[in-house]
Please model this.
Amino acid sequence: MKDTQYVSMWVKRFMLEYLVSTRNLSKNTQLSYRDTFKLMLPFMAKKSKVNIDKLLVDNISVSIIKAFLTELETNRNCSLSTRNQRLAAIHAFAKFIGLNSPEYVEWCRQVQLIPFKKTNRTLITYLEKTEMDALLNAPDKQTDQGKRDHAILLFLYNTGARSDEAAQLRIEDINIPHVPKRDLSTVASLSARSAIAFRNVGEPGRADMPRPANMLLP
Model:
């Protein structure tokens, strides 16, 4: 039997070749695809009554995929958004196989016909300037904890970074310019305010000097 018939071979290529080398997707996206396979492959092996390492592409029928999606909604109580996210991963996987193995083009087409379910869009709200100013002024900047919280809020507001990105921020990841604390003309600038806030948390060192690979914020 050809290796191209085994799902395991395609999963390996998809995870290492397509997601990492070809698309260079983020770590979180890679983990999301991985989690889809962690749930899907055991389910399909059980339904097909074969060992997971013997699972074939032909075993992944449209009916089994639909049964898997139903399993997510009913027994695992996943939201429609999560269900659609898993289906998007399956669509991408099927497309990858179809592009690299012509004998599965028709199978790929059938899989990609499985529709997404309509979900209610969450209304994205925002803070008015006065509300944002109140949030930035909430931390007690007389304490170390307050200085840190203030610096984090300014950084998130100024860069649009996600909270997990801020949590992983290291000293060598940023370059904090020298900003005089009493220079009122620079305090009006948000980037300057961020620089002052970070300096209040802890001086990371000059940009032209080596910086230790440690976390920026405690």
